[in-house]
Design brief:
- The chain is mainly α.
- The chain has one domain.
- The protein contains six helices and no strands.
Amino acid sequence: MTSLKNTQIIHFALCVAVFLFATVTIFINRDEMIFTADFQETAPFNPIFPIVSITTIITSAILYKKMMDKIELNASLDTKIGLYQSAFIVSMALLEGGALLNIVGFLITSNAFFLIFAGLSLFIMIRKKPTKEKLITELNIQYPETEKL
């Protein structure tokens, strides 16, 4: 199994975990579900959980870029892919953490407002799906090495 397939499996597992947890919490809270952005209604979780979610999204993008910038262009393919996987997993873990925190906020308060931020994190996670084309572009891989992917 290739490194790309491993990364895709990790990506799929993280996205499915967030989606299934959100689905289960919606099922649990379906009778008491409310939607309000009123801070008094869901204190102390609102606005802390949404702010944490936005912070993890921004931090995820910054750390991913910093870790990708450290990859040397003349490094071997295995080194490049290893560093890419590290950057990808750190980025995804931050996004997942923000999403899960807001799902827990929804589970505790029954306020669907938190699901907006969990959904935003999940959407970004899905968009980050690793593909061969993204690897070639982001790691600047040239012809003979592209066939090894």
